[in-house]
């Protein structure tokens, strides 16, 4: 755990540096509100661990890790506007705190700062751009053509959640100068972890106790969002089994990677287990 905390501290330190450098000051305050109000930093941790797994260092990957975290936070700002969610991570969401216009500008500012961190590497730019296209298609699909069966739901989960997870791991592999086969294997691992994460998140929203979960439940049903239990015939138990299957396939993808750091790879394996077993 101490090693994980060191990596997380590295991410937080660089994230603070980036936010402190944002200009003008008004935008800096809004970006700080969005990015420094909490968060598990799962995606940048995946970037660093993927890099270390194949022979790179945490320092090699931290720029890309912070970049993907900024992209993720930018997407959350827009999610909260679409959902009219007034809370994010226990504090007021960007639009509730600053208004719709400033929140949208904040999202744009986050993306600008993120792409500045990717700009030196064409492969990194390509990976992130592709993930954002997928994310955008997923957002549009959710608004205009909601899924009505399991296959359509899985496609949406891949685009809305899996795509950024995939980018996070691929960025780590790129930071370690990995070959295309390794980049793809780590990308598949993370995409499937992301899908499993989304399925489990939907189940928890539907069945968990709000106090135990640490946030309001029933949000998907209230907002008519395409949760796995809303748009498929799966029971919560069957949905959990689907999440487990995705996690298992993620681990199979990880088996294709030539591992240089077994400790880092072990953390990636633990993450695949955690996303399907978590209770909050």
UniProtKB/TrEMBL annotation:
Q: Which Pfam families match?
A: polyprenyl_synt
Give the matching PROSITE patterns. Answer: POLYPRENYL_SYNTHASE_1, POLYPRENYL_SYNTHASE_2
User: Its Enzyme Commission number?
Assistant: 2.5.1.10, 2.5.1.29
Chain segments annotated as coiled-coil in the UniProt record: none
Q: Which cofactor does it need?
A: Mg(2+)
Has the keyword Thylakoid been applied to this entry?
A: no
Sorted alphabetically, which InterPro entries does this protein's record hold? Isoprenoid_synthase_dom_sf (IPR008949), Polyprenyl_synt (IPR000092), Polyprenyl_synt_CS (IPR033749)
Instruction: Tell me the superkingdom of the source.
Output: Archaea
Q: Which residues form the signal peptide?
A: none
Q: Which GO terms describe its molecular function?
A: (2E,6E)-farnesyl diphosphate synthase activity; geranylgeranyl diphosphate synthase activity; metal ion binding
Top EC class per UniProt?
Answer: transferase
Which key words tag this protein in UniProt? Isoprene biosynthesis, Magnesium, Metal-binding, Transferase
Question: What does the record list as GO biological process?
Answer: isoprenoid biosynthetic process
Q: Which family does it belong to?
A: Belongs to the FPP/GGPP synthase family.
Name of the protein described by the UniProt record:
Bifunctional short chain isoprenyl diphosphate synthase
